[in-house]
What we know:
Elements: E1 2-5, H1 6-15, H2 19-23, H3 26-34, H4 38-58, E2 72-75, E3 81-85, E4 91-97, E5 101-108
Antiparallel strand pairs: 1-5, 2-3, 4-5
Helix pairs in contact: 1-4
Amino acid sequence: MDIVEISRIQKLIERQPKFIERILTKNEQLVFQSRSGRRQVEYLSGRFAAKEAFAKAMGSGIGGQLSFQDIETASDSNGKPCVTAPFSAGVHLSITHSKDYAAAQVVIEKIN
């Protein structure tokens, strides 16, 4: 599980525009660009939390074995978020937002 303050992500975007490219894969950047205003910041915040939660579920954290670019998310045909890389089988992702926070939870059924 991970939680992030949306205002913190907003400030990072303003100070370091390359932050977006550091966190989001090319496919995720396309989704980010299709949104506007607050929805962009919420999307990036949710994906940041999702990737942190995935890395925690793997037991490695971000840095050594996994980078933000190694983890990719998408939405299924119903709009449910899912992890598509580095693997998706047995991975369950939930992302939520409030006015101030974005949070994500990842459950990995089995690590090969």
